[in-house]
């Protein structure tokens, strides 16, 4: 195979024109990608990853331009090429897959027209030939029933199907370069695993050079041959994937690694080390090494001298003044880890039950369906979002609830806090029946049961300072006397690792992680007995995730707070939760202590979820257990076991006809499956 570079970037710089002055968003970026090679570009939000990708195809907008360096595609310069020349390359020899498929697909066009457009424009296909070619492309990406999908609109497809359409569209013209900008960020872990398998297979088939942008180090470890770590507009480390993960030499790279929870590490046995501070604005970069204000190993000279990208070993480049003694620094950090005693949560040995949920059902009515012709009866149908769910939580413990999107996790959480009405069932909290909606609950009950939402932007009023919003909660529930409210707000800000200066700031002046901390501060302002956290870290960078998880864990330990953590990230749940409930299509299919649920025997669905978790280990052979198809409709769930339509271990007719029995595995571990406990232990991931 020809190993000459398909894409070469040499000292590329990108500048944006603002009202005040020109801002250098990207500086001195250099790398190469050869045919059949995948380069992973990683870093926190705002570090310039997407800007680098957009600079290749000149998608920088009116105020952005490449101001330095060379961008060579197959040895030819792309800088200053005419729009007409670039238009011929885009979608043909250079393709791109975007992070949000609904933003990239035209909602007013059928899938067949969007796929055919590229073939007709670049290769002169007729509509008939383009249709046949597009169907073949959908088959290559394992799209179920591709002919029917061709006739649908984007909103009629699931997120995973939309992303497959984008990948098929990108590969239609067999491009030499494929740019993928966070293509799996918004997908469930099971869909993500299938898409990553697909990317690897297509790369093997077409030998396409790929630039893969992600903040997920586990994903990059699975698909990339080389990794470039980017920080504040510069590449700080570049090497092959195994070297990056086994022998990182830049403090930022190691810092990213230390932020990752381990799906195999029980609660209390692993400490997360978030990187202090935040990525600086390109308009206000620090002097010297731009990472020095956040670096634990920074020396006085680091703030005076800007480091160059130096090759420390063949193929391993590092931008650090202290890279020569980095191995010693790594040993120091590892010794610190060994010296620290595990800090498991020491809950009351005989705690009271704080929350007890019995056969909870949350149904949403859908439009009537006529049965028996025009004059027939109208049958009421329901979306069975949460269907017959039961569990209990003891004081000071955390229950993690995991599952794919649409399984009913968030709906159940909202029903517990009273934001969704129960169709049937009962919820007891501190010995009181709280089955009624929140507007029917007493103020004392609301005070003891608070919620942290997934998107802090949806709960923070943009017109009020964050201090005033926390103060309102204190006054509303009379947590402290009126003359102590301001001091209590400052104490709460300090509790979530923010100083008193944040009191007067507006939400728009905060980062995503800071907004989430404010949401937590407001939730704990009432000293609640229980916190319900709905995907509190799913939209955050790995460093901010680590800081928020550490904060929540610290609050639980200091206040003995009972918690529910809703998440699709099994690694975060493993780090944070004592018990875990696995939900599928409105039902709990497995529940028990984490130490038993996370190891065999598991429910087949749990086995598939664990097999799909991307692990930051390039030497680990990924499991080949994958879930086919999509989650069935909650309006008309399958008979028998609801998981039978996607189960890789389905027994046969019994799974389609009979509800699975409850299997008691001991120690509070329950599995709802037709397999016996002995047979469940034989299922292999």
Structure keywords:
Rossmann fold, 24 strands, 23 helices, alpha/beta, eight-stranded mixed sheet, 685 residues
The total count of helices amounts to 23
Please tell me the overall pLDDT.
88
Biggest sheet: strand arrangement: 6-7-8-3-9-10-12-11
Radius of gyration: 27 Å
Helix share, percent: 25-40%
CATH topology of the largest domain: Rossmann fold
Tell the overall outline.
globular
What share of residues are in beta strands?
A: 15-25%
What is the CATH top level name of the largest domain? Alpha Beta
Secondary structural class: alpha/beta
Overall domain count:
3
Full CATH superfamily name of the largest domain? P-loop containing nucleotide triphosphate hydrolases
Model regions low in confidence, pLDDT < 50 over at least 5 residues: 338-347
- Give the terminus-to-terminus CA distance: 35 Å
* Second CATH tier, the architecture of the largest domain: 3-Layer(aba) Sandwich
How many DSSP E strands? Answer: 24
Largest sheet: 8 strands, mixed
